[in-house]
């Protein structure tokens, strides 16, 4: 059976750059373009040449090898020729194989925002497309607010789409700019537009203001659209765009779509989707969404024991796809709701080998549940769980013993007469029977403790030379003056591995210190440091 081709258009570097808190440097944009190129999307929209120095320099040369590098701009201004419109000419002069022009398709915007007549707007669309085609560019028109425009004045919205296509546009893209359209409406309207513009020339650009961008995109495909626009991890202004890391696996793995359509993303690229999603979040310095479909850390996580047992017998019970098809993995969480099936699975995943008949497993499971009742959460702190399990099995040497620690916070005057707050920590440990006392100053109590603890561990110092703390999270588990505090600390080393440890105490400093010592112990164990 011949399958139809669907084309993926990525807007991460333009529409996604409008996300609150996201700012791409030139190097960032180059790196993301290369990520997308390797993934196998068909178009990479790089931004608006001339809008700012970064985008202008980005378009100084093509940035993709397989994907069509695309410049974004606006249709020409009414009252000017295409040759005399600086914005249009800037887009046409960019080193890009395609141009995407945003055009008004809602009559209200034409008359009230642009302040021109409906016919003048149509003429701008025609002349812009003609100029782009004459310049040898693959041309597409993004019909802004198309669905709102269609609902207000269907004849005029269709006239805009027809004008773009008749002038030579390869793609006419229908944009749900404010994300307020439902899948049923999208399917109906796309079907009607397909009577004017062939489906092979129709695209959809859905925003996620109702959480329906992916559903609307899929509805548009079923109604005839053959290009889908979206962004990595759903980036975009307000609530974001259609999420390509959700759309791509759905198109490739769900028979409703995979039996009828094909995309440019290979099975090998799909298997790297989870790591690509996380690498992209790391690049823009954002925490990854653990609950993201397909690629999130919890996308295939199961906590309840009865569910875990069912998954071990037949994964299809609670997993709609094989996790490794998108580069993810199954997690059977160890918690107060989990049983021995969860425990054995999690032990295997963190590399702890144990016979399932080992009587120490029952004691370990009871300890996990008791500690979770106190506030510990091992599903987010796998390093601490691995240590807890190995200690129960007698596999963790006492590399060092903490005898005591003390933290002081003082406010002082600086040389300029201002006030500064300084934290000082003193830690006393024993290594190989030898007491070691270290002190350090830090920008806060935890930073001071971290520096003091890692300052001198005797013969173990070379093993922790590259260790550093990369993230610190605090959660208050109950209110009041006797609140229990949970601390999660993320650490890394020169090998690039990242691990998380947990500490719980009514005292936030004590909880932090517990997580810090677990992190050090985990590193020494990982590095095969010799036992005392």
TrEMBL record:
Cite a single Pfam family from the UniProt record.
Answer: HMGL-like
PANTHER family with a match to the protein in the record:
(R)-CITRAMALATE SYNTHASE (PTHR43538:SF1), ALPHA-IPM SYNTHASE/HOMOCITRATE SYNTHASE (PTHR43538)
Q: Extract the NCBIfam families matched here.
A: citramal_synth
Instruction: Quote the SMART domains the UniProt record gives.
Output: LeuA_dimer
Q: Which family does it belong to?
A: Belongs to the alpha-IPM synthase/homocitrate synthase family.
The pathway noted for it is: Amino-acid biosynthesis; L-isoleucine biosynthesis; 2-oxobutanoate from pyruvate: step 1/3
Q: Keyword check for Transferase, yes or no.
A: yes
**What is the organism of origin for this protein?**
Chelatococcus sambhunathii
Can you tell me where the transmembrane regions are? Answer: none
List, for all copies, the residue spans of the domain called 2-isopropylmalate synthase LeuA allosteric (dimerisation).
379-524
Query: Do you know which Gene3D superfamilies this protein is assigned to?
Result: 1.10.238.260, 3.30.160.270, Aldolase class I (3.20.20.70)
Report the domain of life of the source organism: Bacteria
Q: Look at the named UniProt entry and state the broad enzyme category this protein falls under.
A: transferase
Q: Does the keyword Transferase apply?
A: yes
Q: What is its EC number?
A: 2.3.3.21
Which keywords accompany this UniProt record?
Amino-acid biosynthesis, Branched-chain amino acid biosynthesis, Isoleucine biosynthesis, Transferase
> InterPro entries from the xrefs?
2-isopropylmalate_synth_dimer, AIPM/Hcit_synth_CS, Aldolase_TIM, Citramal_synthase, LeuA/HCS_post-cat, LeuA_allosteric_dom_sf, PYR_CT
What protein does this entry describe?
Answer: Citramalate synthase
Q: What is the lineage of its organism?
A: Bacteria, Pseudomonadati, Pseudomonadota, Alphaproteobacteria, Hyphomicrobiales
Provide the reaction this enzyme catalyses.
Answer: pyruvate + acetyl-CoA + H2O = (3R)-citramalate + CoA + H(+)
């Amino acid at each position: 059976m011949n399958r139809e081709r669907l084309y993926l258009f990525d807007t991460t570097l333009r529409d996604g750059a409008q996300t609150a808190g996201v700012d791409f440097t030139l190097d960032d944009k180059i790196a993301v373009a290369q990520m997308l190129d390797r993934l196998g999307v068909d178009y990479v929209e790089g931004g608006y040449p001339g809008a700012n120095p970064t985008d202008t320099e980005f378009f100084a040369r093509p940035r993709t090898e397989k994907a069509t590098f695309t410049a974004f701009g606006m249709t020409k201004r009414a009252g000017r020729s295409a040759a005399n419109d600086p914005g249009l000419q800037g887009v046409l002069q960019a080193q890009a194989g395609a141009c995407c022009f945003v055009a008004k398709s809602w009559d209200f915007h034409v008359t009230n925002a642009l302040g021109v007549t409906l016919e003048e707007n149509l003429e701008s669309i025609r002349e812009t497309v003609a100029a782009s085609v004459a310049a040898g560019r693959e041309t597409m028109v993004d019909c802004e607010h198309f669905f709102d425009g269609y609902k207000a004045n269907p004849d005029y919205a269709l006239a805009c789409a027809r004008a773009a296509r008749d002038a030579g546009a390869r793609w006419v893209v229908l944009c749900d700019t404010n994300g307020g359209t439902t899948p049923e409406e999208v399917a109906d309207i796309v079907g009607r537009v397909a009577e004017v513009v062939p489906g092979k020339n129709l695209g959809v650009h859905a925003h996620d203001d109702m959480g329906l961008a992916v559903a609307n995109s899929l509805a548009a495909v079923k109604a005839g659209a053959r290009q889908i626009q979206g962004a990595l991890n759903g980036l975009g202004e307000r609530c974001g765009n259609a999420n390509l890391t959700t759309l791509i696996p759905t198109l490739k793995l769900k028979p409703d779509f995979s039996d009828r359509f094909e995309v440019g993303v290979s099975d090998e690229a799909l298997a790297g989707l989870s790591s690509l999603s996380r690498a992209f979040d790391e690049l823009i310095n954002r925490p990854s969404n653990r609950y993201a479909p397909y690629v999130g850390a919890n996308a295939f996580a199961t906590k309840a024991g009865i569910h875990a047992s069912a998954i071990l017998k037949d994964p299809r019970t609670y997993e709609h796809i094989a996790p490794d098809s998108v580069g993810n993995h199954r997690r059977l969480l160890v918690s107060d709701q989990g049983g021995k099936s969860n425990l054995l699975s999690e032990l295997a995943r963190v590399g702890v080998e144990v016979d399932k008949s080992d009587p120490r497993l029952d004691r370990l499971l009871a300890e996990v549940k008791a500690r979770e009742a106190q506030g510990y959460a091992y599903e987010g702190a796998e390093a601490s769980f691995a240590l807890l399990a190995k200690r129960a099995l007698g596999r963790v040497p006492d590399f060092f013993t903490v005898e005591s620690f003390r933290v002081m916070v003082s406010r002082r005057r600086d040389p300029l007469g201002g006030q500064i707050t300084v934290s000082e920590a003193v830690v006393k440990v024993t290594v190989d029977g030898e007491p070691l006392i270290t002190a350090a100053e830090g920008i806060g109590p935890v930073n001071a403790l971290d520096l003091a603890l890692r300052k001198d561990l005797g013969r173990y110092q070379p093993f922790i030379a590259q260790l550093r703390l990369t993230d610190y999270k605090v959660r208050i588990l109950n209110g009041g003056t006797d609140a229990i505090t949970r601390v999660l600390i993320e650490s890394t080393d020169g090998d690039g591995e990242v691990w998380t440890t947990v500490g719980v105490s009514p005292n936030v400093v004590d909880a932090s210190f517990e997580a810090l010592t677990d992190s050090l112990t985990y590193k020494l164990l990982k590095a095969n440091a010799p036992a005392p």
